[in-house]
Amino acid sequence: MAPSNTWSETDPAGSSLRSLGDDSIRQFKLDLRERLAAEHVSGDGTVIEAADFTEARHKLSSIGLLGLLKGLRIEQRTYATSGNITISGRLQIEINGDMCYLNSDTNLAFSGLTASTSYYIYVASPGHETELVAGNLSYSTTVPTYSTSKKGWYSGTSRAIGFFRSAVGSYMIPFIQTQFKYRYMYDTLSGLVILSSGTATSYTEITSAANLIPVFCGSICILEVLFDPSTALATGTVTLSGRGVTSQVDTRIEFTYPSGSSSNGLIVQADCSLSSNRTIYYYSSSSNLAIRLGVIGFDLDGSL
Questions:
Q1: What is the location of CATH 2.80.20 in the chain?
Q2: Which residue, of 136, 238, 269, 275, is most buried by count of CB atoms within 10 Å of its CB?
Q3: pTM
């Protein structure tokens, strides 16, 4: 009987029959079948790419990437009381044990927001190896908690993936969020001010900072600082600390007016550390130097 030249992955490894194929070929074909992924690297270091993202998604049943979150981008660019929040396609996410994905941009509609309120964006699993749709997305004032077993921020079985804030009049403050960065896009500080006219000369806590920063924040907050002297001052200083204690200085900003002035046009941007309680402390070098602080962005812890 003539030998068969048909390759079969069910034949045992280590077969001495050359017609069944070399073990390395067998393993390579199995890797392709089991691990189709946009950025999977084969055993010899070759990057395997697929033209279609749906076919390229990771198969967690064989890889097991607990807490996976890849390709996240959320944005809403309009100061409005209603509209759509866009979650960009190319998202890969593990939700409560299920591998899910987005292959195209998907909108989450919003309206009827409560004024000056923080909201979190959630996603529920439609099932393992299943594409997400708009019906799987929601927003809520419920604050998520971090699950060490699931490696993500959850409320029940829904995973938190985003955050937004409403201003007065139930307007959403525009924003762009990626996996590691968040930036407010509003062209004024309306709704973003955490200190309107601070003149404290010793460390004073600003508790309202937590309203504009989510629980899954990272370690850096970006602030807009406005100096507003009530009398002519040649120099001035504001000191900031976001580490949750007053014994460590994060940022000290000094300014100099050439001839002493009481104009309030000096605005600078400053980075300040953040602790898990999202509290910022400040003090001014003079009671005649009022300070305005507004949150314009922050980094995220990347775990979401």
A1: 69-184
A2: 238
A3: 0.78
Query: Backbone dihedral region of 196: left (phi > 0), alpha (psi from -120 to 50 degrees) or beta?
Result: alpha
| Secondary structure class of 36 (helix, strand, coil) | coil
Q: Is the domain covering 193-300 a CATH 2.60.40 domain?
A: no
Which pLDDT tens digit goes with each residue over 237-291? 899 998 877 767 778 888 776 555 555 567 889 999 888 889 899 999 999 888 9
CA distance 184 to 220: 14
Q: Which fold has domain 69-184?
A: Tail fiber receptor-binding protein (2.80.20)
Judged by DSSP in three states, 50 sits in coil
Q: What angle do CA 105, 107, 111 make, to 5 degrees?
A: 165
One-letter amino acid of 36: L
Residue 215 DSSP label: T
Residue type for position 281: Y
Cα-Cα-Cα-Cα dihedral sign, residues 12, 16, 17, 21: positive
